[in-house]
Amino acid sequence: MEAERAGGGEAKEGEDPSTPKPSLFPLFPLPSNSSPSDPPFSSGSQWLANTSFTFDVSSLVGSGAGDALREEPANLDSDDEVPAAARPPPPSYDLVPSSPSVTSSEDERRSKRKARRKKRKREREGVGDGAPRKSAVRSWSGSVMKPVKDYYFDADGDKDNLAFGSLYRMDIARYKTQNYGESTGTNFWALYHLRTSALDMNNEGDNDALGNKQKSQGRYYSAKFTMIERNKAFRNIKFVNKISSVMPEDFLPLPESHSSAENGPSVNNELEESWEDEMIRKTREFNRISRDRPNDEKVWLSFAEFQDKVASTLTKKAARLQMLEKKVSILEKAVEFNPNSEELLLCLLKTYLNRDTIDIAMEKWEKILIQHSDSCKLWKEFLLFCQGDFSQFKVSKIRKSYAHAIQALSAALDKQRRQGSASLQSVDSSFVQLELGLVDIFLSYCRFEWQVGYQELATGLFQAEMEYSLFCPSLVLSSNSKQRLFEHFWKSNAARVGEDGALGWSSWLEKDEQTRQNIMGEDTTAQNEAGGWTGWFELSSKHNTTSREPEISADPDVDDTAAEMNLDFEENLDSEEIPPADDVETLLKKLGIDIDAEPNNEVKDSETWNRWSKEELIRDDEQWMPVHENPDETGMVASPHSNDNSGKDDGEQLSRVILFEDVCDYLFSLSSKEAHLSLVCQFIDFYGGKISQWTNTNKSTWIERILSLEAVPHAILDDLRIIFQLVNKQQDSSHFMLETLLSHTSTSSKTNMMKFLRNAILLCLDVLPRNHMLQEALLFAEEFFRSNMNSSTRSINPSRALAKSLLKKDRQDLLLCGVYAQTEAKYGNMDMARKIFDMALLSMDALPMAYVFVLKELKQYLKKEEIIQANIIFVLHAYCFSDIDVFSTFMNLSDGRWMTFGCLSFLNWKDLQENIPLLYFWYADMEIARSTSNSNSELSSQRAIHILSCLGGNVKYTPFSSQPSPVQILRARQGFKELIKSLRPVCARGSIGEQSLAIICAASLFEILTNDWFTGIQVIEEAFSMVLPERRSQSLQLECLWVYYIKMLERHKQLNFSRVWKTTTQGYQTYPYNPKSFRAILQVSYLYNVSSKVRRIFDECCQRYPSVIMCLFALAFEIGAAGSYHRIHSLFERALANEKLQKSVLLWRCYLEYEANIAHNLSAARRIFFRAIHACPWSKRLWLDGFQKLSNVLSAKELSDLQEVMRDKELNLRTDIYEILLQDEMPS
Question: Which stretches are tagged as biased composition: Basic residues (predicted)?
Fold first, then answer.
């Protein structure tokens, strides 16, 4: 050691003192002006030559970082100030080579092997050998070179994040405030200490190198800071508006000006408060506003909702119950100030359910319903609550609840009729809305009876209500008298609505009265001829024979003998005992069934229950039509369909007889045409008919209909199938098994239903004449029925004969001509379709002259005092239309009695004139649809331009012969502009009709064909801008216009993505319950390759507008795209967590089908099944799904217990399990 030190000293003395020596730990790089003759570093210190030690610290500071960073601070730890030149240089040391040893050589070889492994690993990962970390970084934070982008995406990922469970601390961005004063230079040592202190903080990635104190620290997402954030006393900085968070309903804030920042301070105030401070502040604010505006129900609802938010932060149950009591007191106080507010009452009743037991909550429900018996909304919520309570559910109890609801609302309607309000015929009047709500409750009850298994009763209820409301005799009767008269009709065995030979109650009553008069006349004549009084007798009419008593014979001796024989026979029946051999136990033993055996011995396996459920479904599909009771002596029953009686005993058929007592409590009268149309349309939709959209999808009628479905209608199923095929175009579509679940009706049952619908709609057209929606549904039902009955060629329209017969009855029904022509075009008969349209449009010119002829014929019956009021309207209409013949005819009239016929003729003519735009638009749209599917598209487009030119130019229609001239096109364009301009006042009121809708669509189509596609789209957008958003969302016609707009977007794919996406998202926000909204979003996302936005929209919609439609389309998207199990599972769970969607049978069935047959998770399917029947105990179909899909999971004893529960809940079971057991014994 001495020698070594001496050697070192000699070497040191021999060197030049001015030559800089390399330091062992150089903090700063050597000066660049060093001599090239300087000796290099020794081999021992070569490993210290790392870029981390030679990093240029001057790059950390943007300006003034030259030599200032190399200067030490003026005041260090020493007290004396020494000049820099007088300071001695820092000592330097050289490494002493160690003697070689075996251990060091082994360590060297081991380190070399480790280095080679690291090198190979870096090569595999794409990192060069010995490349520093700086070389892999594109740009450091303090570098002078400005990066191209402010951020980069790490696409490779770091596998160490999974291994260590956290991010690498050097990969996490650190943010800190930096304020070094206004000096141009920066003190390096201050910066150095600041950087080292920052490096020591938040080192939660390297837990092994940290102490306990450092481990307790963490970043903002760590557990420590999360707990601090949850602390109620923790103060956060927030921006609070000066305006109160709860504003009155009529408050409209002004938009913020762009110059507000220049003129004055911002409207937001910075506030530092904790959660407790916020709670106190908002409570004071709600108390103040509720005192100032006690009649504003939104203030009270927000106040109650704030209590839920406070309760969600509490951990103790007692504290949450205290907040619940506070919420109840707030809502009770709100109801005192607003006793008629339905929203407040519903919120209060739902709060009672969270606090009280079911019995106490039921009493409070009944008490409130007695006070508000005319509220349809309260009755609907009450019925849904009763239906979904598994513990209290029984079919008989729900029937009583529906009967009370219908009777209460019917009494409210009768009260308003007696008051004779002048606004009863207004569409927006409370009377019409009450009738529409009553129809919705009646439909809910019919659907309930259908789903619990009483399909015959549901059909009988429809028949009874339609006869009672639509075909009521024109007699002034009280409610009791009307029901007694209807009871006579119901017990008469007459054909009812939908059955062959049905006439309607009114027509049947007239015919029955005529028959009665004829019989009385014949009996009077016979009595006068015989002379004397022959005693009392009973009329024997084949329409009125309800008694089963034997007829009285003319011979008194025969009557006495028969009476004695009947009396003896009845006494023998009473005294006769049943022999032991005929009792039930003996008969069962003869059949080989031991009633003393255990249940497990009766049904040995679950497959028997599976077969039982299939047989039950088959009988449910077949036995939906009620049967009639024959009035003959045998007491047999007869079915309207002959094939229903084959192989059925009389006892089973007798259970399908619907008596008057079964329907009398659910009958009510309807007066408005809107209620009549709603009843008929929902009746058609209930039995699977095809009908145009009759209500807005934002209405409660549509939402409740979708919520109560067990299977998806065919129109929505077609949209789902299109989306699934679009998403799954490159994958196997065999795993989309929900389609078989969503439609289950058999073909034979569907055929009988279409026949039933055809007969019913034909009868309803007498009450609602010239309704093109009903006519379209009628022709569709006829097509389906005839196509399944007859195997005819596809080119022949099966509904042609029916359409021609309807046109023979009413040749002036032009819309029927349009519907008939569209059906012919669907079968490819374009020539016949064009001929029908041409005939209808050419006949419009002959109609005014026909009315002139009628008026001239009635001239001799006219009276001057009866003509004045109606004559003014008719004359002005004729004058405005420049019809000289009609005008001159009225000028020459002097007297007559034409009031009734003349007014009807005028209204008829007016309706025909208003329907002209709709007929023109149908014709042009048919040609455009033909052009897209045909090679000769140019000729079809020219035909469409010709048709629309006649409409816009207001010229006489002529069949197409040549292309329209530019003058005609210019005149038509100007005419369309004037027509749309005249529609502005109508659109502003939101009362747009079908005729106005047809004009807008025709103008848009005309601009697309003659100008360009962008101009045509602007026509529809301009029409939307005429209406306020609130009225737009509640208008049926505007929703149909939006659907047509989406259809045009699908047909012409020429717009950029931003415009199309904005349109579709606005439509989804306006009509969130329309299936076309989600179909358009999915189609646009795949057209423009932005499918990543679809899930975000579905998540947003699930929070804001939860609906069954949204869930179905999200499932079609995820299943079609082979989405993950967890994503689909999350969709189901989030949807079923909603209070409304939890009562959807369709969602539960889809969930069960997915887990059982797609995910193949039978244990999860079992749990879901029990949750489903607890939430929806009324759905017999849902119970039977468990028998079919879980027969391998549930034991025979469990399935037997499930059937017993179904019987206890009073669900209708048509098949006995012993029938299945007997089928097993029959082959042996």
Answer: 111-122
